[in-house]
Each structure stands twice: as structure tokens, then as C-alpha cells.
Amino acid sequence: SSEESLRSLSLDYLNLLINGQAFSDVTFSVEGRLVNAHRCILAARSLYFRKFFSSTEGSPRSGGVIPVNSVGYEVFLLVLQFLYSGQVSIVPQKHEPRANCGERGCWHTHCSSAVDLALDTLSAARSFGVEQLVYITQKQLASMVEKVSIEDVMKVLIASRKQEMPQLWTTCSHLVAKSGLPPEILAKHLPIEVVAKIEELRLKSTIAMAAAGPRHHQSSAMAELEDQKIRRMRRALDSSDVELVKLMVMGEGLNLDDSLALHYAVENCSREVVKSLLELGAADVNFAAGPVGKTPLHIAAEMVCPDMVAVLLDHHADPTVRTAEGVTPLDILRSLTSDFLFKGAVPWLTHIEPNKLRLCLELVQSAAMVISREEAARMTTMGNNNVYLNLGVY
Question: Where's the C2HC NPR-type domain (predicted)?
Fold first, then answer.
């Protein structure tokens, strides 16, 4: 199909980048490390590079290594990966020690390290004129801010103001307004005019709450009850007590999809717990969570966990479901397979076990091929039926 052809072309271009000096005609120096690339690809994908290579400074005749001082090595590689392939994962590798994350064994999904990497990538994407990457990074930040610390929300708030992103600004400013931090504390992190905007939001919220009266308090109490249910459910899953979760579903009306029970279990629990949860029959194995729209299989693919991938596929997880950014679990594993070839140059990928990655890829590819064959057979049957109808055969 045309989609498969484009994906293959994307990987071919990415392999050019991975193979370093093969056919490269430009070399950058970033934080003392050399990065080889190809002028024609960068110029085709970025107006910034097109103009730079047309200038005296960037022309082939100038020779030598081109220094890059505006971004770090990690972020520069992420930008190049997107320019070459149209795909990128703007998340630090799980469990990798990071300078700005003190939590041992952190998954780096909502910590300060993850936020900083996304903000640095956003700034770099703007600098290099890669607007599609700006859009992707903005969406990722929007999905992160609901779960990060208030200090990190304020960092995103400042960036959204600087980068002129009104939707992200609105989300973050409301979160800061709800935080309850007094103005004198906010003033240590935010410009005075931003603090004034936050206080204005708080005043409007207070007036609205007064107008809503008892109904507001009732809805707040219901929300608190739901939060308590979710916390109890997660404690039950952590202790492998799926029976308690079953009782909560039957007796308390707990919705496993809305509470992201399966997503939580895949990320934090054992294969047996996930299997038992699926066998309750109360969770949609293909439920897409949050603005990004990841299914449990997306998470298992990111974890490179064959056991989780297998148990989800055994219960009819769909490897072709796409996130809001158009990424399937199969895309994630293909991208990781390509990234793994970076291991000599990119230290945060060294934790990936090649055998597990290969097994995950084989499992998901096989499942995707089965779905593709079934779809082709269904279309053939429909086509034959249409022919019979047109011929008047009943």
C-alpha cells in the first residue's frame, strides 16, 4: 500500500542518518560531538537549513565542521530524526539517570526531565523552522501538564507565553490558578504580569463558584469520590488483588476504562494481573487514553515488554490503532528498532535488550499481518458480492 511505501521510505532515510558518514556531505559539531548529515534532506525538510546552506557560511565550498551552539546534542539528534523520518519520540528513555530527575528508576513520563526535554525540543523546532515538530511537541506538553508538578506547569506556562501558544497558555494558567499557591510564591517563578493574570482568573473562578452555589460543591464531592475509587483500585492492582477490583466494578460502578485501569496495570503490574484484569471482561483492550490516545498496546510497545505485548494480543489488542499523532504500536517498535542502531552514539538506548525488541516487533508485525489479510479477504468478498448483484445473480 502507499502507506507502507511511505513508511519504508521513512526508514530508508532514517538509516542514512544512522549510518553516519555514509554519503554524508555535512558535519555538525554539537557539545563537542560530531553529527554527519545530508544537505539535500535537511534543506528539503527545513526552511532554516535551506537558507543556511544557500549562504556563504553554509555552502559546501566553506568546508569544515559547522558548530551548533543553540541546542544540545540530544535535542539536535531528535530534530534530525524527525527531519529524516517524520517520526520522533520526545521522551527520555525509561530508568535512565538524568541530571534533573532525582527519582531512581523513574519512567520519565511526567517528571521534570521529561518536561525539560519537551520544552528544549519545542524551542529547537521553532529555531529550525520545523512547524510540524512544534505542533507535535505542543500536543505532548498539553497531555503532560495535567500530571506534572506545579513547578513544571509554571515552566510550560512561561514557554507557552514566549512561543505564543494560546491553548497551552490557557491550560497551564488555569492549573496554576487552581494550585492555591499565594501570589508571593508565584512571583518567585513567574513575571509580575503573569501573576496578575493568575489572580484575575482566581477572582473570576471565585465569583463563578459563588453563583453556582451548592451544585458546585456537590460536583466537587463527586469528583473526590471518583478519585478515591481510582486510588483504591490502583492500590488493589499493586497488591495483585484483582478480586477487589471486580467487586468495585460490580458494587461501586467503577469504570475500568475511564479510570485507565488496564493502562496502569500494563505499566506497573505483572503479566498475571493484566491477564486477570482482561478476563473480567470489563475493560476495553483498545481503549485510547487521554489527548494523545495511547492504547495499552502502545504502552507495552514503548516498554519493549514481550510478555505484556503477548497477553494483550491474545485478548484481541489491535496493533493498527493510531494515536492522535497517527502512531501505531507497530510504528513505535519499528522506530525503536531503528533507534537501537544509534546505541554506539546515543547512550540512553543501551538499556534496550535486542532480543526483547525483536520478539515484540515479530509479535506485533504478525498480528498486523493477520488483520491486513482479514481485511483484504473481507474486501474481496464484498467485491465479489457486488459483481453478483450487478450481474443479477442472486
Answer: 98-112
